[in-house]
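Need a sequence for this fold. Nothing fancy.
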């Protein structure tokens, strides 16, 4: 995800939200791209999903940052009660239809057992002795609960520095969000990892790509997109913050970054991602005061505006260090579900 913006006083946030929901985004409306009549069956189906669960979960859950750099101690990772079925139960109770898991975030560690890197579940030796496969557990839970399967994968970028409080140790290279095996060939390495995700886990309904336009591989995105589609032609490919249907199968809006929503008259498939935690926090953070979470009423208002504009709303509710959606985050999600059901 993008860098955390400054946090405005709570009253200003509420006022801005009221203006945005009543009148549309403060910035100019994004272009809507291809009209609905020219959409594929998968794109038209995507427009019916409405509400989904985003799950940011990896080493950053335990290191206390949204931007793990790859040099954090993997032995911190110890979700003793991890239960993907509990995530799915929470999603269903809230009226969600799909889930998206951060299969590989900026720490570069794959949440599956990979043949192309040693920076995978094997480094998490405190979780099932290094023999776990969270992607497998996740997709199985989705299918068992009738939820669409979404997997997130982060492309390279500049995630490790003093600003992000995770500069590489002295003498160590910047990993740019990928494991050491990717050095010198980011594009080729990502193809090999994405092939594992799209060949080994059955049909994937949504592949969610972050940082697709990065300075390292962005110029080759059209070729990468074609390669992904060759692996799973029916999978929706979402390029985060893409504003056309050439670079992405859907228009994409990262709400905490720009506070934008699709245009009022949008007819293209779109998604707005957001986080239940304020301050643009995506990975689990302890709730210390009520303002640390969005009000349920504000979340429901955004869901309804998004749905009227042909956009799904993907709400991040991150699992805690036990591997469960719990505490105030879970209670707030339940409040959202109850309001939606009224």
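Here you go.
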């Amino acid at each position: 995800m993008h860098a955390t913006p400054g946090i405005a006083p709570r009253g200003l946030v509420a006022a801005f939200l009221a203006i945005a929901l009543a009148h549309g985004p403060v910035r100019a409306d994004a272009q809507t791209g291809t009209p609905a009549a020219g959409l594929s069956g998968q794109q038209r189906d995507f427009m019916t999903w409405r509400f989904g669960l985003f799950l940011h979960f990896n080493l950053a859950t335990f290191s206390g940052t949204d931007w793990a750099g790859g040099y954090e101690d993997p032995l911190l990772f110890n979700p003793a009660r991890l239960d993907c079925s509990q995530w799915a139960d929470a999603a269903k109770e809230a009226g969600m239809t799909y889930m998206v898991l951060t299969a590989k975030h900026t720490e570069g560690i794959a949440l599956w057992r990979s043949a192309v890197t040693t920076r995978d579940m094997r480094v998490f030796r405190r979780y099932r002795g290094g023999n776990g496969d969270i992607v497998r557990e996740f997709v199985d839970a989705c299918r068992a609960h009738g939820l669409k399967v979404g997997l997130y994968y982060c492309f390279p970028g500049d995630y490790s520095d003093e600003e992000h409080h995770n500069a590489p140790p002295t003498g160590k290279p910047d990993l740019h969000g990928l494991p050491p095996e990717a050095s010198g060939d980011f594009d080729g390495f990502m193809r090999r990892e994405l092939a594992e995700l799209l060949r080994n886990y059955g049909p994937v309904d949504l592949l969610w790509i972050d940082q697709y336009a990065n300075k390292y591989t962005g110029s080759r995105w059209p070729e990468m997109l074609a390669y992904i589609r060759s692996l799973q032609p029916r999978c929706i490919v979402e390029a985060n913050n893409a504003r056309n249907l050439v670079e992405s199968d859907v228009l994409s809006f990262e709400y905490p970054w720009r506070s934008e929503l699709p245009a009022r008259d949008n007819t293209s498939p779109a998604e707005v991602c957001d986080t239940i935690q304020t301050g643009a926090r995506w990975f689990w953070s302890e709730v210390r005061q009520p303002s640390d979470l969005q009000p349920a009423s504000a979340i429901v208002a955004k869901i309804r505006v998004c749905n009227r504009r042909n956009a799904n709303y993907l709400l991040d509710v991150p699992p805690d260090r036990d591997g469960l959606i719990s505490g105030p985050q879970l209670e707030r999600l339940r409040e959202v579900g109850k309001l939606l059901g009224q």
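For context: Confidence is low (pLDDT under 50) at residues 2-17, 19-35.
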